[in-house]
Amino acid sequence: MSWLAAAAELARAGTPFVLVTLARVRGHAPRRAGSKMVVTAREAHGSVGGGNLEATATARARELLASGARDPELLSLPLGPQGGAHGVQCCGGEVTLLLEPFALARPSVALFGAGHVGWALVQVLGTLPLNLHLIDSRASALARPLPSPLAATLTRHHAPVPESALAALPAGTHLLILTHDHAEDLAVLERALRGPFGMVGLIGSASKWAHFRRELARQGLSETDLARVVTPIGDPELGKSPPAIAIGVAAQLLSVLELPEGLF
């Protein structure tokens, strides 16, 4: 696999890697400046020259991954008979390598409801480096083909009791509640406000939220809990069509997301 294909695949999967670039060459070296390789904790793709040079670069890249380093660094290596920790490489030149860590931990966003708005959100949010979860009590609602290509990963959950799917979501997951049934919305919302989640967004009108507030307070949730709910979601000035709602919701979500920086 080429370094570019590997980097794209790793970025889509959210796997940390280091991009190693042969930034400068003085004298003789086994590769030209600009050669690249991608290093993960277990694999390497591409080449910056093989031998001691490449083994040293790989070892240093894995040290950066293990330490969680985020800043790039330069590594200069002589290619002389004195050798190094990984043997001798007698090209006679000197190279400078640029090592760039890409820590690509992706935020998670769960969409409760695979209706028209839910799928419109998949299309809009799918352009971002996210882990998306689409949850619905109706298996048929989840059966659509995926929009392609997606920068996000998408996991579909058929959950006859939708709030039960919350247990499988990572802490900090941002939740958007927009099922086809107000009773399901309320059940998911009540469970969500008792969990370690991020933004909790609820689709619907002011009267729907007023009813939900009373019921959630009756179930023992505090004003602090209720203040976590973002409702309505979307921007009414954009319109009421599913794509317009999805664009408005995505804009709200972007204000709280911490997206990974990287090539893709």
UniProtKB/TrEMBL annotation:
Residues covered by the XdhC- CoxI domain: 11-69
InterPro entries (UniProt xref): MoCofactor_Util/Proc, Xanthine_DH_XdhC, XdhC_CoxI, XdhC_Rossmann_dom
A matching Pfam family: XdhC_CoxI
Gene3D superfamilies linked: NAD(P)-binding Rossmann-like Domain
Coiled coil: none
Domain XdhC Rossmann: 110-253
Residue ranges of the TM segments: none
Protein name per its UniProtKB record: Xanthine dehydrogenase accessory protein XdhC
